[in-house]
Amino acid sequence: MVAGVYRISRRRIGLWLRREVLDRVLFHGRPLVCALAFVWRRLLFRTTFVAITGSLGKTTAKQCVAACLAARHRTACIPVDSNDDGWLALSVLRVRPWHRYAVLEVAAGAPGRMAGRIPFVRPDVSIVLGIARTHTATYPTLAARAAEKGRLIGALRPGGLAVLNADDPLVAAMAPPAGAAMVRFGTRADADVRGAAIAARWPERFSLRVSCDGVNETVRTRLVGEHWMPVVLAALAVARHAGVPLGEAAAALGRVPPVLGRLEPVQLPGGATVLRDDFIGSIDTLDAAVAVLEDAIARRRILLVTDFSDSGKDRRNRLRHLARAAARSSDMAVFVGESAAYGGRRAVEAGMAPAQVRDFRTLEETAHFLKAELGEGDLLLLKGRTADHATRIFHALRGPIRCWKTDCGRRIPCDRCWEL
User: Fold this and answer.
1) Domain that holds residue 354
2) 187 or 11: which carries more pLDDT confidence?
3) Which of 28, 48, 51, 348 has the fewest CB atoms within 10 Å, i.e. the most exposed one?
């Protein structure tokens, strides 16, 4: 057992060191890496590049699109932890000439970022999933976010394809340049790839009925929550363009697991289930996750929250928002952080009984409480920001961990940190 722990620790340290080295190389050598990617992309003239943007769901969409395309074609889907220019350029460099398709996610965390990334991505297919409240410090309005992400559509060459969310007015208003085609997905009657939810209530996974070109197909995914509708329909729209039959694409989607920390369900040894949603902390991801919890069937529904971002609210107003969310969605609320007691009081004011509310200042205290509290059939929604490192609570519920830092400057999932 000691030898096994040693091997796991050595592997984690190795992965962490490799990531640290790559981060430093990309930080100092970003212009060179981007220049190499620019040249390499033009040599890959037989590879169709699919670029995905949108406020939320890009990583899950990347996995879904790649799975659909891989049903019939050699497809590159590069897993990365960052949407930085250097990491995106590195993803381009890892595509090989024998890949028929390459699927990339292209973020734009600030105005002007998209313009710098388009030259070495050079998309043949551009997908816009939706516009939501993210990066509010750099984008004053949703329209400003839409304008920046719309640049990916404007970059299409003749013969390219724009894949747009018909249910999002800001996305639906986008138009591809002359010579490029367009396909719309959504729940609207005029969508080219149309979906209608069948089931999404936990413990069921999201399934839907899809209509496309006169063909109807039931798609059963492993994803949790109806809010994944745009992601699934976008993947099917790209599959349609690539000549993958709807039935084959649906089967491929059924094998795609939830992405780490994005409403990822994990069963604990004692029989409780944790819905990990601790990677992205924006208010729109919070509302989607709370909706899943509110509708779930479980012995007890428990909401554990640290904080959320992109709301424009101060800390106390955010806690009031969390308190109201807890009162309508959960049988127990657990607030964590320096102002957790304030959140607990607001939850009681919102209608929860005092016995249903707990507050803790530290993650370690919270983990000790939950170890004794959780039982078979409980459903725990773990909601927080990457910077809060609430992931450590999840790992502590599965076994001993080594790190309980109260101040950590890293912005990576704790799963990938060698100190855990």
Assistant:
1) 264-416
2) 187
3) 28
Judge whether 285 and 56 are in contact, CB under 8 Å.
yes
**What does the pLDDT look like over 137-166, one tens digit per residue?**
666 788 888 888 999 999 998 999 999 999
Asked whether residue 1 is assigned to any structural domain, the reply reads no
Residue 202's CATH number: 3.40.1190.10
* pLDDT for the residue 140: 73
Tell me the CA distances in angstroms from 16 to 88, 93, 167, 420, one per residue in order. 19, 21, 41, 11
- Check whether residue 105 and residue 143 sit in a common domain: yes
Within-domain flag for 21:
no
Provide the pLDDT for residue 17: 43
Same domain? 75 vs 157: yes
Alpha-carbon distance 20 to 280, whole Å?
Answer: 22
d(CA 89, CA 333): 42
> Is the same domain home to 227 and 370?
no
Task: Clarify whether residues 386 and 249 are in a common domain.
Answer: no
Domain end residue (candidates: 253, 282, 310): 253
Structure tokens at 156: 């299409």
The sign one gets for the Cα dihedral 287, 263, 294, 382 is negative
Crossing angle for the helix pair 246-253 and 58-70, nearest 10 degrees? 130
Report yes or no on 102 lying in a domain: yes
Question: What does the pLDDT read at residue 60?
Answer: 94
Q: 292-296: list long-range contacts, CB under 8 Å, 24+ apart.
A: 292/200, 292/202, 292/224, 292/225, 292/227, 292/263, 292/381, 293/202, 293/329, 293/330, 293/379, 293/381, 294/328, 294/329, 294/330, 295/200, 295/201, 295/202, 296/201, 296/202, 296/203, 296/379
Tokens (6 digits) for 150: 């719309």
Cα angle 72-65-112, degrees, rounded to a multiple of 5:
135
Which range, 8-17, 82-91, 202-211, 318-327, is most confident? 202-211
pTM (2 d.p.):
0.89
- Domain membership of residue 341 (yes or no) is yes
Q: Where is the domain boundary, 218, 253, 288?
A: 253
